[in-house]
Amino acid sequence: MLGTVSLVALFVLGLLSMSPWLIIPFAVVNAFIGVHFPAGKADMLRERGTYWQVLLSSLPLQAVFAGVVFGIGYVVGLLFN
Q1: pLDDT, tens digit, for every residue of 53-73?
Q2: What helix, strand, coil percent values describe the chain, rounded to 5?
């Protein structure tokens, strides 16, 4: 749910032609949300000692996905304005 809200917000910011620098904080937030949901996932990763490895390795993928969502919003905003 929170990840979906974050992606919708990123789409809307792209739609409004905001700065692409917003992709970075959204990628970090989405990576954090991805590591902590479903409940108990972060605890399991901490027990295995791979919490930081998983969090940092998911950042590039989240950044690419956030960039694609932002770009789609940006292009839609260009087409309708």
Answers
A1: 999 999 999 999 999 999 999
A2: 85, 0, 15
